[in-house]
Inverse folding.
């Protein structure tokens, strides 16, 4: 297990479709995070492009062997950076991807699995769907990346937790939606704040949730990035609606203590789950 | 004629519609008050503009839009244009001045009577609605001219109720670059206006397009805003089906009339229909955000 480390949440306001400006924004935020002693810097979903890309997706896409990815890798020397972009695969599929850069190199890529395509969302019109949820051994401990809507599917964090993740990093572009009378924030913000705590406590892990801010075509993004610890405590909370760079310290020993007190993951019966899933899957085809 | 704000107040206290069990239209005034100036600042600022211009009628919608723009951009960056016609009520102009004074932004006046009179001299039999639509479009051209003159974006003032019912003039008062009120029902406009200090006489008077003497929205529409807003909120936002709306106490004729208005005015909320010929047709398979590259 790694020593305690500082994480920086870069709650940015990306420029829609302008990779060069957004790359400059990444450079600036990484420099500030580095100065603050951070070993991990996390950016929001599609931090390099903005969210409502639509037909612009192919124009802003980056190949993993291209210069923008190389530049981000360069910027990650001496620390870890999770940045998000449109990934162009060699077979010309486009993925909504988050890239884990570690000390000058790409460590792994997570391609968003659950592309919301309902209501105000249209992602699967433009993006190909990722096919993996994995935890990976990194310099900071075993970690998984899940992008925004991925985490609304309890199955993804369940898989990440069973795969050994102590740290779940969630880049997000969560829009304001459903302002109601008696809650301080909109429905989306309240739901995220609920599930981040529920998942962190249920599985005894840290959630690093980084959301963006700003408006695109009238759609506002609420920010409110946060780190939640395995006890459900909030280690840091960025402001709502404003760009910010906030930091806190993560000590994975807290996951150990939580899992000793409540060994829920240890007691998970995978065989039972697989058996029942097999049965449910079968029933689905009946 | 019921007074609008009285209706709004009764709606909260005792629900005048009695048998209606659908939820009241909610408003988180504090949060919306925080979001809308941020929206204006962001959406105007990213175009490179620093200023807005809007038609100031003395009614509650343009008053609220102006107040929000002042918060977003500063009073010096908001220009209210009063565009009276000779039959416009003196009270409307007075209210526009009250609002400008309260929020500290500049106004100017362009009397549209000469051009309207000149035009209708050639069409003396034109109906009040033709005249009203012409006036709304005349005002639009003036706003866009002053937009060009001052480098300001045109700020829209159409609320969600009007937009859904089609109670507005296409390419007239519905035309704008940025509209902070388009997702607020009229009752929410009232409540927010009251909360942020729009002069009370502006908030409590019966809404009118003031296109002819004695016109009021509610007499022309045939129903009161608190009732139609509650119906629209259930129908549109909460997606109640027709049978659920009836079970919630709305009269079938009312439900059907409003549903028809929403459907028949769909064209006002879209670009003109384009014949598809190529592989990429605008707004069909040529899709970009309005903020593309901003």
């Amino acid at each position: 297990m790694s020593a305690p480390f500082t994480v920086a949440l870069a709650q940015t306001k990306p420029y829609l479709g302008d990779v060069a400006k957004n790359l400059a924004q990444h450079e600036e935020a990484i420099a500030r995070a580095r100065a603050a002693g951070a070993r991990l810097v996390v950016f929001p979903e599609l931090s390099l492009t903005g969210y409502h890309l639509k037909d612009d997706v192919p124009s802003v896409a980056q190949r993993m062997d291209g210069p923008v990815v190389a530049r981000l890798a360069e910027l990650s020397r001496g620390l870890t950076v999770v940045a998000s972009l449109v990934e162009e695969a060699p077979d010309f599929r486009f993925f909504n991807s988050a890239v884990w850069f570690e000390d000058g190199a790409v460590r792994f890529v997570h391609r968003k699995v659950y592309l919301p395509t309902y209501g105000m969302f249209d992602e699967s019109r433009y993006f190909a769907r990722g096919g993996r949820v994995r935890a990976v051994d990194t310099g900071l401990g075993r970690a998984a990346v899940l992008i925004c809507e991925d985490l609304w599917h309890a199955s993804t964090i369940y898989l990440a937790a069973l795969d050994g993740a102590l740290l779940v990093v969630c880049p997000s572009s969560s829009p304001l939606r459903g302002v109601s009378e008696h809650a301080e924030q909109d429905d989306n913000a309240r739901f995220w704040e609920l599930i981040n705590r529920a998942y962190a406590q249920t599985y005894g892990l840290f959630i690093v949730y980084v959301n963006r801010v700003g408006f695109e075509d009238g759609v506002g993004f609420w920010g409110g990035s946060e780190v939640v610890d395995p006890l459900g405590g909030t280690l840091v909370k960025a402001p709502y609606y404003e760009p910010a760079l906030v930091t806190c310290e993560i000590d994975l020993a807290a996951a150990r203590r939580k899992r000793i007190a409540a060994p829920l993951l240890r007691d998970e019966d995978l065989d039972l789950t697989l058996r029942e899933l097999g049965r449910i899957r079968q029933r689905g085809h009946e | 004629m019921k007074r609008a704000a009285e209706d709004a107040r009764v709606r909260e206290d005792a629900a005048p519609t009695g048998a209606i069990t659908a939820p009241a239209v909610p408003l988180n005034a504090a949060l919306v008050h925080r979001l809308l100036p941020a929206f204006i600042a962001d959406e105007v600022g990213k175009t490179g503009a620093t200023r807005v211009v809007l038609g100031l009628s003395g009614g509650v919608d343009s008053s609220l839009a102006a107040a929000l723009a002042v918060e977003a951009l500063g009073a010096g960056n908001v220009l209210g244009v009063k565009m009276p016609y000779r039959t416009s009520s003196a009270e409307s102009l007075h209210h526009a001045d009250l609002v400008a004074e309260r929020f500290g932004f500049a106004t100017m006046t362009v009397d549209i009577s000469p051009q309207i009179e000149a035009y209708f001299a050639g069409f003396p039999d034109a109906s009040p609605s033709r005249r009203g639509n012409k006036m709304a479009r005349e005002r639009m051209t003036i706003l866009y001219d002053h937009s060009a003159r001052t480098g300001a974006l045109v700020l829209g003032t159409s609320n969600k109720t009007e937009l859904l019912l089609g109670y507005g003039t296409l390419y007239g008062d519905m035309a704008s670059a940025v509209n902070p009120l388009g997702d607020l029902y009229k009752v929410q406009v009232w409540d927010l206006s009251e909360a942020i200090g729009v002069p009370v006489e502006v908030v409590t008077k019966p809404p009118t397009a003031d296109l002819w003497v004695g016109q009021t929205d509610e007499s022309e529409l045939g129903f009161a805003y608190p009732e139609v807003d509650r119906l629209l909120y259930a129908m549109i936002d909460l997606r109640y089906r027709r049978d659920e709306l009836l079970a919630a106490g709305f009269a079938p004729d009312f439900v059907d009339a409003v549903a028809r208005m929403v459907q028949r005015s769909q064209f006002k909320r879209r670009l003109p229909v384009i014949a598809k010929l190529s592989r990429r047709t605008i707004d069909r398979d040529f899709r970009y955000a309005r903020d593309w590259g901003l």
Q: What stands out?
A: Chain B touches chain A at residues 26-28, 30-32, 34-35, 38-39, 42-43, 182, 285-294 (CB under 8 Å).
